[in-house]
Amino acid sequence: MNILDKIIARKKEEVASAKAKKTIAELESSFSFERQTYALKDFLTDPSKTGIIAEFKRKSPSKGIINDKLSVQEVTTGYAAAGASALSVLTDRDFFMGHDDDLIAARKVNEIPILRKDFMIDEYQIIEAKALGADIVLLIAACLTPAEIRGFAKLAKSLGLSTLLEVHNKEELNRSLNPYLDVIGINNRNLKDFTVSIETSLSLAEIIPKEFLKISESAISNIETIKTLKKAGFNGFLIGENFMKTDNPGKAMTEFVKGI
Ligand SMILES: O=P(O)(O)OC[C@@H](O)[C@@H](O)c1c[nH]c2ccccc12
């Protein structure tokens, strides 16, 4: 079993127990269902922002503990002050040391879109994302069928949520596009074996249809890479570790974006 299979197997158990604890009707009665969500594409194309989706990530299966000392409030407000177009908050507990409460806490103190970074395998989690205060859900093509991607993206849209579709190769891209999507993320990290290459983004950029915005995800640690990706037409950049590994991620991002 590769790591992605392990995560998905565990996720199925978690979703079953979450459903047993809270009904969909209860989720829908939460305060967050009232709020006006922020659209990812609007913030990615806002010239006063950096295009960076900055991630709060304590730990990952590939790197182990990255930083478990800082609060989600201080990190995410630091990112927003540094010009983040959006925030990414991990809610997976077992593999990333994240928590639903991290998203709730980030929502209270930020006014930019927030991505619920998790492994979505059930419609329940999309509704839960809305209840937690998220604006964006991640759909990972490597662990979903085209029909699931379409159905989940349609549901997300009906809730006012943006969808970030994550692909890692041409085959995933070609089978997963549908009219409910507007932003495509190319993950430079292979979730099955953790190998990373920026080439993954560069080679797939050309075959993404023009109507979609493009984001490059993972393993971005220098400004030259951002410049190269921008030239290739990328509108956004998902960055976690490069900032999280420091004592002050917001400050690290402020320094980083000076070079853009
Ligand atoms: O920390 P990095 O290398 O900058 O990567 C951030 C982000 O792209 C990565 O955390 C990520 C991309 N896709 C995912 C899917 C699930 C969990 C995590 C991820």
UniProtKB/TrEMBL annotation:
Residues 4-255 form the Indole-3-glycerol phosphate synthase domain. The keyword rRNA-binding does not apply. It catalyses: 1-(2-carboxyphenylamino)-1-deoxy-D-ribulose 5-phosphate + H(+) = (1S,2R)-1-C-(indol-3-yl)glycerol 3-phosphate + CO2 + H2O. Residues 1-28 form a coiled coil. The keyword Transmembrane does not apply. Pathway: Amino-acid biosynthesis; L-tryptophan biosynthesis; L-tryptophan from chorismate: step 4/5. It comes from the Bacteria. Gene3D superfamilies: Aldolase class I. Its EC number is 4.1.1.48. InterPro entries: Aldolase_TIM, Indole-3-glycerol_P_synth, Indole-3-glycerol_P_synth_dom, Indole-3-GlycerolPSynthase_CS, RibuloseP-bd_barrel. One of its GO terms (molecular function) is indole-3-glycerol-phosphate synthase activity. Keywords: Amino-acid biosynthesis, Aromatic amino acid biosynthesis, Coiled coil, Decarboxylase, Lyase, Tryptophan biosynthesis. Pfam families: IGPS. HAMAP family: IGPS_B. Belongs to the TrpC family. PANTHER family: INDOLE-3-GLYCEROL-PHOSPHATE SYNTHASE (PTHR22854:SF2), TRYPTOPHAN BIOSYNTHESIS PROTEIN (PTHR22854). This is Indole-3-glycerol phosphate synthase. The gene is trpC.
